[in-house]
Amino acid sequence: MKSGLEKGNKKSMQMTVSPDMTASFDGRLIHPVLSTVAMVYHMEWVGRLIIEPYLEEGEEGIGAEIQVKHCLPAPVGVDVVFEAEVVDLTERQVTCRVTASHGHGVVGEGVFVQRIVSKEKLYGKFQELS
C-alpha cells in the first residue's frame, strides 16, 4: 500500500433511501425502510473508498469480515450518511468503524475489515474456484 493511510482517516457519502433499497424478498415489500442488506452494501462501499487511493499497482482490497447492528429505521426519502473511519491497520489489513446515520440518530454501526492482497493471486484464486 502507498503511504498516507493512517488511523483516523475518514470517508463519508450520503444516499437518499429509494424504493430499491427497502426490505424486500422476491419482489415482495416487507418494510418501506432501508434494508439491512442495503445498509451493509453502503457501509462496505464507503469502506472501499478509504483504501482505493492507497492501493499500489497490482494490489487489491477484498472484504474479509463485517459485523453490524441495525439500530433505527430509515424510511424511503430520508438522507442517510455513511461513514468509515480507519481504527486499525497493518501492511495487509485495514479495519474501519462504519456508521450509517440520519437526523434522528444512528441507523447502523459496525466494523468492516478489508485485506490487501496481490491482484494476480486473487484473480488466480477466482479462476481456480470457477
Summed up:
This protein is of the alpha+beta class and 130 residues long. It contains two helices and seven strands; from the N terminus they run E-E-E-H-E-E-E-E-H. It has a single domain (10-129), classed as Thiol Ester Dehydrase, Chain A, CATH 3.10.129.10.
Question: How would you characterize the overall build of this protein?
Answer:
The structure is a single chain. The model has no long low-confidence stretch (mean pLDDT 97). The chain has one domain: Thiol Ester Dehydrase, Chain A, CATH 3.10.129.10. It has a five-stranded antiparallel sheet. The two termini are 28 Å apart. It has 130 residues and is α+β, with helices and mostly antiparallel strands. The protein has helices spanning 36-51, 119-129, and strands at 10-16, 22-25, 28-34, 59-70, 79-90, 93-102, 105-118. It is globular, with a radius of gyration of 16 Å. The protein is built from two helices and seven strands, in the order E-E-E-H-E-E-E-E-H. It holds the Pfam family FlK. This is Thioesterase.
